[in-house]
């Protein structure tokens, strides 16, 4: 599953295996155990207008914005509410 982590204007970065949005570490209780152990590494980016930053829940094997870059907000086709 991919999750939208960053919206336009958000500064996304990774430090010490944690994802930070606007300098604040995200609480990510949905991560797989392997993701928590390995941590998340990414290049810092500020999300521009019309784009989103997505990350997979199973970070060690996920292909997401760390690999593809930002995606167009128009490509988001669904919303999951739990």
TrEMBL record:
Q: Which keywords label this protein?
A: Hydrolase, Protease
Q: Please name the SUPFAM superfamilies in this protein's record.
A: LexA/Signal peptidase
Specify the enzyme's EC class, one word: hydrolase
Under the heading Gene3D superfamilies, the entry gives: Umud Fragment, subunit A
What top-level branch of life does the organism fall under?
Bacteria
Topology of the protein relative to the lipid bilayer: Single-pass type II membrane protein
Q: Does the keyword Protease apply?
A: yes
Compartment(s) of residence: Cell membrane; Membrane
Q: What is this enzyme's catalytic activity, as reactions?
A: Cleavage of hydrophobic, N-terminal signal or leader sequences from secreted and periplasmic proteins
Q: Which InterPro entries match?
A: LexA/Signal_pep-like_sf (IPR036286), Pept_S26A_signal_pept_1 (IPR000223), Peptidase_S26 (IPR019533)
Main location as per UniProt: membrane
What residues does the Peptidase S26 domain cover?
3-81
Its Enzyme Commission number(s) read: 3.4.21.89
Q: Which GO terms describe its molecular function?
A: signal peptidase activity
By sequence similarity, the record places it as follows: Belongs to the peptidase S26 family.
What protein is this chain from? Answer: Signal peptidase I
Q: Which organism is it from?
A: Actinoplanes hulinensis
Source organism phylogeny: Bacteria, Bacillati, Actinomycetota, Actinomycetes, Micromonosporales
């Amino acid at each position: 599953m991919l999750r939208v982590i960053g919206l336009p204007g958000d500064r996304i970065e990774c430090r010490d295996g944690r994802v930070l949005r606007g300098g604040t570490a995200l609480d990510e209780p949905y991560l797989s155990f392997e993701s928590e152990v390995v941590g998340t590494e990414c290049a810092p980016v500020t999300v521009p207008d019309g784009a989103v930053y997505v990350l997979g829940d199973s970070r060690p094997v996920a292909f997401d914005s760390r690999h593809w870059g930002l995606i167009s907000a128009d490509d988001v086709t669904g919303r999951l509410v739990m």
